[in-house]
Amino acid sequence: MAFAQPLSSSSLSMMNRSFVAKSSVTASLSLNKSRVCVDSLKIRFQNRWSFIGGSPLAFSPIILSNSSSLVHKKPSCVRASWMATSQIASSVFAVGTTAVLPFYTLMVVAPKAEITKKCMESSIPYVVFGVLYAYLLYLSWTPDTLKYMFSSKYLLPELSGITKMFSSEMTLASAWIHLLVIDLFAARQVFNDGLENKIETRHSVSLCLLFCPVGIVSHVVTKALTNSSTSNPNNKCK
């Protein structure tokens, strides 16, 4: 006949510890023994054994490193912005180049026509190009623009800084519009001076389209040669 012996406090404590340990191990095995993913976080189960308190579960959040589980919206936005900027620069480059050609054509083909004189007297093209240039300058402006423009210790431009600044398509587009406006303005000055002094300007105007300084020099030489030939007494009729 077996008699039930009362359990001592030490036995109850050992049973309690065994039960806590078994429950913690069972919980960790049922949860794939490692991690649980909740709202893009991983909860890692760490078994820290203690002779006093058993084996409690320790939870430590770990951010998922798998790129497929995260939504990367910023790179896509940056890429879309870059594509839009590149498209604007290409469009402005093509439109600006095409827009100045009719003015050069009129000055070369029909320099004495009334429509040519009226078109070259108007300031509307320069205002339109000026607004367009200001807009492109705004789009191409960055916090490093001034640093590139005045990169030397004497606050003067340097070739290396200008090269870095013009590495952007938008900056190149704005510089191209700048050149188109200046070249057209110089060509108009050459054209008007030729009309006033009755000097041939078609070759000089054509050079201003692509090589503006050369076109100005060409006009100065042409004007000097024309004046010298008209002032030569041997060319006058006796």
Automatic annotation (TrEMBL):
InterPro entries: ABA4-like. The chain crosses the membrane at residues 88-111, 123-141, 173-191, 203-221. Keywords: Membrane, Transmembrane, Transmembrane helix. Coiled coil: none annotated. PANTHER family: PROTEIN ABA DEFICIENT 4, CHLOROPLASTIC. This is Neoxanthin synthase. It comes from Brassica carinata. The lineage of its organism: Eukaryota, Viridiplantae, Streptophyta, Embryophyta, Tracheophyta.
